[in-house]
């Protein structure tokens, strides 16, 4: 089964009002804030789309509120990919797939990064395998789309501000549609 733009809208309409893992924003607000940060940074449209959709796996794989508090890694970075692959290219999908490992990498290469993580991000970091070794960080950085994943990760971390004003879901679904595989949207 693949998701259409209408299916993605339905997921956000149905589950977007749920709290985002102990943060002061909802799932939808977090997605819109990440996409806004990407757009405002001048990111290419595929990365803006990835920023909107990076946590779609949480909406597809319902694990309740704050699964990390119960020791659950929901593997959300992988969960949505089979549903999105017919619709989107690797320029969108790979930053989504890599955004968790990007956190692990940033903890290894940026001495100040770990201190910026929210309590839930620290909990999930442990469940996701912890900080990369120097060798693992270098291997990550050599992957295609690693730089986009690092940028997405930083926007992900900043997209947790209660009351931040963003463009609408319609606006960003338009961006997703603009980068969709021809005929798939």
Question: What do these coordinates show?
Answer:
With 185 residues, this protein is mostly helical. The protein has a single domain, classed as Orthogonal Bundle (Hypothetical protein af1432). The chain is 58% helix and 0% strand. The protein has eleven helices and no strands. It has helices at residues 5-15, 27-40, 45-53, 56-60, 76-79, 81-84, 90-109, 119-127, 134-141, 146-158, 169-179. The longest helix has 20 residues, at 90-109. The radius of gyration is 15 Å and the shape is globular. The mean pLDDT is 90.
Strands, helices and their partners?
Elements: H1 5-15, H2 27-40, H3 45-53, H4 56-60, H5 76-79, H6 81-84, H7 90-109, H8 119-127, H9 134-141, H10 146-158, H11 169-179
Helix pairs in contact: 2-3, 2-10, 3-7, 3-11, 7-9, 7-10
Give the tally of β-strands.
Answer: 0
Distance between the termini: 14 Å
Characterize the overall form. Answer: globular
Roughly what fraction of the amino acids lie in strands? under 5%
DSSP helical segment count: 11
**Element-level helix/strand string:** HHHHHHHHHHH
**Mean pLDDT value:** 90
Helix content: 55-70%
List the domain count as a whole number: 1
Which oligomeric form is depicted? single chain
Poorly predicted parts = none
CATH superfamily: Hypothetical protein af1432
GO molecular function, one term: hydrolase activity
InterPro entries: HD/PDEase_dom, OP_Dioxygenase, Phosphonate_degrad-assoc
Keywords: Hydrolase
Protein name: Phosphohydrolase
């Amino acid at each position: 089964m693949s998701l259409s733009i209408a299916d993605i809208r339905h997921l956000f309409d149905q589950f977007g009002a749920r709290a985002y893992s102990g943060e002061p924003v909802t799932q939808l607000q977090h997605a819109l804030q990440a996409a806004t940060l990407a757009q405002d940074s001048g990111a290419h449209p595929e990365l803006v789309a990835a920023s909107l959709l990076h946590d779609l796996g949480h909406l597809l794989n319902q694990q309740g509120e704050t699964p990390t508090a119960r020791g659950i890694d929901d593997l959300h970075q992988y969960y949505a990919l089979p549903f999105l692959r017919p619709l989107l290219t690797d320029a969108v999908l790979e930053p989504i797939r890599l955004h968790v490992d990007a956190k692990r990498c940033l903890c290894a290469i940026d001495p100040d990064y770990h201190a910026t993580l929210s309590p839930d991000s620290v909990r999930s970091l442990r469940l996701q395998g912890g900080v990369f070794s120097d060798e693992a960080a270098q291997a990550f950085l050599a992957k295609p789309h690693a730089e986009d994943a690092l940028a997405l990760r930083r926007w992900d971390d900043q997209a947790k501000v209660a009351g931040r004003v963003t463009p609408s879901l319609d606006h960003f679904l338009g961006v997703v549609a603009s980068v969709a595989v021809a005929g798939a949207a």
